[in-house]
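Thread: "does anyone have the structure for this chain?"

Original post by V.I.:
We have the sequence but no experimental structure in hand. Need at least a predicted one for the grant figures.
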Amino acid sequence: MSNSEIKILAIESSCDETSAAIAVNGKILNNIIATQSVHENYGGVVPELASRAHLLNIVPVVNQALTKASIQRNELNAIAFTRGPGLLGALLVGTSFAKAMALALGLPLIEVNHMQAHILAHFIDNPHPKFPFLCLTVSGGHTQIVRVKDHLEMEVVGQTQDDAVGEAFDKVAKMLNLGYPGGAKIDRLAENGDPNRFSFAKTEMPDLDYSFSGIKTSVLYFLKDQLKKDPNFIQVNQTDLAASIQAALVNMLMEKLVKAAKKFNIKTIAIAGGVSANSGLRKKLKEMEKSHGWEIHIPEFQYCTDNAGMIAMAAHYKYLKKQFVGQQVSALPRMKID
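Reply from O.Q.:
Generated one for you, tokens below.
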């Protein structure tokens, strides 16, 4: 590799995935991810356990990324890390490691917004969305509609005012006794269910904002009423319940996305974040592509969930703009995209 190449090591540790990736001139060479199975025992991510797992995983993951890319530490041009948003303890592990490594090697340090990186995952593989485009970013912690004007210029035009859609999926999955991770289990069950079998109330929100607390409450009381009549109701109707709940949540997402597309006269639509791996959402978007004349962009599965590949992609564009930070930088759990 020539000296003119931009080689970046990126680190992601915002929640329960410890990940490292190498980018050379904006091309992702690898995307190493260590998952944490310990949380399955608790029905959700336990922040303290996530932090401890990051401490165990971060050195092996970084070493593996460098080895697989055949790059030595002294060949790197910059170290990038997720500053936020995310769990404070988890973010601290990645932030501290990146700062120490950059200091030891005398390298520039690049902070990356986790949600901005989810959107820039669309620039890892071709075809890339053309600016401006709308991106629906959906995860366990966030639900946003973002107007993307350039690689580093984004505006949140709508967002949830309470729970994220990913959290709604997981909470409802608990009500159905599906365990963790709930969203993926609902998705698998929904494939064999009737999405029109049951209907649920939702909270109406102004303009482009979302609320998912109302549908959770609706599902809760619906199940309570049905279980009084038939204790086996959930077990007998599991696939139809999953399909109906998934359809309701996806329709809520689409309703605001359609409104945003009309408001800004944008037909290039992207999705990002962990929930963008949901097959029901992907299928609905493909239907909208035909019915609304949209150009849809959906990232590869490995770049939907939390990963360092997307952090490296965002860092590449920040490197080109010389957007570096100093050693005084600290983790920012509530970091905003704009």
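V.I.: this helps a lot. The chain has two domains: 7-120+304-320, 129-298.
O.Q.: and The mean pLDDT is 93.
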